[in-house]
Amino acid sequence: MDLFAHRGVSAHFPENTKAAFYAASKLPIAGIELDVHVTADGELVVIHDETIDRTSNGSGYVKDFTLQQLRAYDYGSWFAAQFQGESIPTLGEVLELFVATHHRINIELKTDVFPYEGIEALVLKEIATHQMTERVIISSFNHESLQTVYQMAPYIETAALFAEVLVDFTTYTATIPANAIHVSLPTAFRKPIATALEREATVRVYTVNDVKYAKQLQQLGIQALFTDDPEAILDGINKD
């Protein structure tokens, strides 16, 4: 079963920072997951929330700042004093860390609140620049974004994110179309997921930080997990 470091190794490093991704780049895992928003001057930055309030010493919406303005804030000390001075990374800077590794990169387009006009083209350009077309997965809760990606680059793997259970995942995702289904941990044990797996769908589950659940999902035939603590999950799975 493949493991993806969720927002980097976010159990031990400030999420979505170069420190968290650098740590992940050294691990024998399948890949990483990150989130992208667009700045006021059209730059792609890696951060989960629409605002910088939770993960920096600043306040306000990402979309209202230029990259230079966002760089004025500290994105590490909220997590621990040793990470003071961590900067908000651009998508390009994170991809740079993985150019020479084997890891896959799951890029989540955070277009479910603000549409960020043109984000899909910007992301595809960055992927092409770093020659990572074969290694990326683009996911989103906004399935219109996935349709846009498919229209522009049908060769890129896409994954539809779901917080709730659908009665029929595979028929729905075929209409987007999307190559994979990313579902939340509680819903992964429900019958529609088993049906999707029977139909040979690719199913990945977020966010799994308990070894017990990881083992159960592995037994179900789930192909991959997103976890904040990939080393702990890896150790737990390999113990038996």
Automatic annotation (TrEMBL):
InterPro entries: GP_PDE_dom, PLC-like_Pdiesterase_TIM-brl. Gene3D superfamilies: Phosphatidylinositol (PI) phosphodiesterase (3.20.20.190). Residues 1-237 form the GP-PDE domain. GO terms for biological process: lipid metabolic process. PROSITE patterns: GP_PDE. One of its GO terms (molecular function) is phosphoric diester hydrolase activity. This is Glycerophosphodiester phosphodiesterase. It comes from Lysinibacillus mangiferihumi.
